[in-house]
Structures are given as C-alpha cells and as structure tokens.
Amino acid sequence: MSSIFVPRAYQGPVIRHIQSVPRCAVWADMGLGKTVSAETAVDIELAMGGGPVLVLAPLRVAKNVWGAEAAKWGHLKHLRTMAIVGTAAERKRALHTSADVYTTNYDNLPWLVNECGDNWPFRIVIADEATRLKGFRLKQGGMRTRALAQVAHTKVDRFIELTGTPAPNGLVDLWGQMWFLDGGKRLGRSYDAFLQRWFCLPHKNAAKYEPRGDFVRDEIFEMIRDLVVVVRAEDYFDLEAPIVTNVEVDMPVSAVRLYRELERQMFIELKDAIETKSVTAVNMAALTNKCLQMANGAVYVDGESQTKGPRAWAPVHDAKIEALRSIVEETNGAPLLVSYEFQSDLARIKKAFPQAVHLDAKKSTEDRWNEGRIPMLLAHPASAGHGLNLQHGGNRIVFFGHNWNLEQYQQINERIGPVRQMQAGYKRSVFIYHIVAAGTLDYEVMVRRQTKRDVQELLLERMNGR
C-alpha cells in the first residue's frame, strides 16, 4: 500500500529549490528524504514532457532504492523506474525499455554515453551521492566523470546533485561538483584556477592544499549560494531523538532458497567445488541464530568442535557487505561504529574493509577512535556497554546484524548517543543505520526490541503465516 506524502518542514523548500533552479545541489544529511524530494520535484517536469530522468547512484541504490521509493508514495507510484545494471546485454535491454526514471551506477557512465551516442535521451540528470563527481578535471580525472562531462552541458537541461557530505576532504572537493552545475563560472574555469585563487600548499613538500585563510570558506559559499540548499538534521530534529534509517537489502535468489529451506527443515547442505557442508538447527533457539547468520551473509556449519578454536563458517551472500560499502560511500569518510553479531561477520567485514579496527579491551583502541584515527570501529554489543565512551570519535552507528537483547542494543547506541554528544559539547545529531535483509528474521528482531515479545512466539507466528 502506498503512503500519503506529507512533506516535512524542510522538504517543501528543497522541492521548490529543485523546481526553480534548473542546475542545483541539495546538501542534506542521510535519512532526511532527499530521494522522495527530488522525485517529487521532477515529477512535474515529467508530466510536462521534460524527461526522461537519469539517476546516477551507487550500485545498490541504483538497483533498489529509487524504484522502491517511488512505489512507496501514492503521488509517485505512477512513475515507471528502470535500473540500467547488470551485463551489457541486460543494460542495453533496460535502456531501450520505456520508463520515466532510469537509474544506473557511476561505473556504467562510459558505456552509457557511448551506447547513446548522439541520441542521448536524458534531459534531466540526478547525481545521487554527488561527491562521486569531485575528482573531475578538464584534462584529467576518471573515465566516469569525463564521460558525463561530454553531455552534462550540451544535452542535459536540468542537473541535480544530492549529497550529505559535499566536502569530505575539504573545500577542494567542491570544484568538480560545481563544474557540472555551471561549467566553472563561479569557482573557476579550471581546477588549477580554483586552487590558485583560494588555496596554497602549507609547505613545499605538502601533498594537500589548504585554504589561504578563514575568508575562503565564506567567499566560496557566497559564490555558490544560489545553487545550493542546505538541510542539517540538527536544525529540524530534537537532539534526543536519533535519526534512524533502515537500509533494506535483497539476498540473492540462491540465498533466499537456502534460507527458506532452513526455516522449513532446520537443515540445509551447502555445496562448493570442494566439499559439501551441512547446517543443522537442533532446536528453535538454534534455528533463530542460524537464520540471523544467513541474513548477515554467512552461517556456521556442522562438525566443528568449539574446543578446537574458531568455528568454521560458510559464506552465503554479500548483500549486507555491499550495503555497508554504500553507507561508507554515502557518509564520505565519516567515522562509523559498526555493530556485528557473529565472528563470521567480523571476519568478513575486516576482509572487505581493511581499514576497520576491532574494538578490543585496550584503552589505546578507544583513544585512537576518539582522536579520529579509526575510520571504522567494529564492536559487538555485548562488549560495548557501560564505561565505554566513544562519543568523541563519531556520531554514526551501523547495525550490520541484529540480536534480541534490548539492553545490549540500547547500551551500544548510548556509547555515541545524543546525551553523550551533548555532554561532550557537540551539537550534532546521532545517526543509526539498520542493515536488514528483506524477508528474514531481521525485522522480527527489531520488533522484539520494541515490544519485548517472546522469541518463540514471533518465530511461530512467522511459520504459521507462511
């Protein structure tokens, strides 16, 4: 069932800004509804024949989020969304399928520009997570941004950029993004001209340009003020209420099949090129754990004695890993406290994110986090409770996995929670991201944390419903 869209106080101005400024940027924190605001704004253009729309986004977002967002709202459910992803043949088929909004990931830009040639059809482009454009240079830069530059000012009438962190590495990140809006009119026709006007190297061996003075920020913002609308969560939300975003992922079909078989039979076999491994749930409590493990992407297998060291596990899917990767990209380097549930989660996250650090008992680890020297801190909720102060290191927590324990959930949240943020003197919102696998026990766990309903009751209800 579609929901009725009632714009929040800040969404009205965002929608009007997009409608009135053909080439513009929306800088709004993650979770504040940038997607529905942008789709609402361009819907009128589509009704007047101004489309179709091309949305550029990270792969998971392009594949799943934009279409689901349109279907969620009653005033947008008529929009036909087509994801241009997959193999070359699949992308070509999607490109030539009639739709209102087409979505694709940035990596596909060179292919898309080449495939369309002189018949580029997209008069409106929305760059979601627009910091992907920051590396553009007129004579250098990556293949993706160079390909987009070929059409950005000659074949695109409306160019809309969405991001929560427009300058993750400082003001130097703004030139590439602004070029796609005005061709360099405001910040300089070239990146070199931009640097020469406002930046310098602090010493001859430095690799990073620094602003020439405190005036630079104000001057640059004044230059681009007419193109940008800024929405900060702390201006609209009570700091005592964290901003919660559920990031839903779809497991691959093969993983869904295994998950359903485990639910029904409490037993599955996992086969690879070398051997077959079995997974057995001996009772209902064990079944809930096995299901939660599979939702996260790996499951412990039978036949391993716990006295011989770490238990053996088998990978099932990487959907949550990719979702975590998207959050890392979307928050553009903001420190993340990541809550994991199983040792298999910890191992897989560390492999996918070599920069991640496991929260151990050493005070030095806590200190390094609070000093901003750890970009991703991995913590189990059972070991991140009382006495641990992590609020100086960040204000964003990601739940990669979930458990039934409400106290543990509240305790790890409180390590960086709103009260601690205010006590430490920070006026900033706390962001909580729940990565949840669609159609799994993840959702029941979150319900349990709210209602404290019995685990077995929820599981039995699920089985009866099926």
Terminus-to-terminus distance? 20 Å
**Main sheet overview:** 7 strands, parallel
Radius of gyration: 24 Å
How many extended strands?
19
- Give the overall shape, derived from the CA principal axes: globular
| Unreliable spans | 453-466
The structural domain count equals: 3
The CATH class of the largest domain is identified as Alpha Beta
Proportion of β residues?
Answer: 15-25%
Level-2 CATH architecture of the largest domain: 3-Layer(aba) Sandwich
Integer average pLDDT = 88
Q: Would you tell me the structural class of the helices and strands?
A: alpha/beta
Count helical runs. 18
Helix content: 25-40%
Write a structural description.
The protein is of the alpha/beta class. The chain folds into 3 domains: 225 residues, 3-Layer(aba) Sandwich (Rossmann fold); 139 residues, Rossmann fold; 65 residues, no CATH class. The chain is 39% helix and 18% strand. It is built from 18 helices and 19 strands. It has a 7-stranded parallel sheet, with helices on both faces. It has a 6-stranded parallel sheet with strand order 10-19-18-15-17-16, covered by helices on one side. Strand 5, helix 6 and strand 6 form a beta-alpha-beta unit. The longest helix has 14 residues. The C terminus is likely disordered.
Short structural summary:
The protein has 18 helices and 19 strands. By secondary structure, it is of the alpha/beta class. The strands form 5 sheets. It has a 7-stranded parallel sheet, sandwiched between helices. A 6-stranded parallel sheet has the order 10-19-18-15-17-16, with helices on one face.
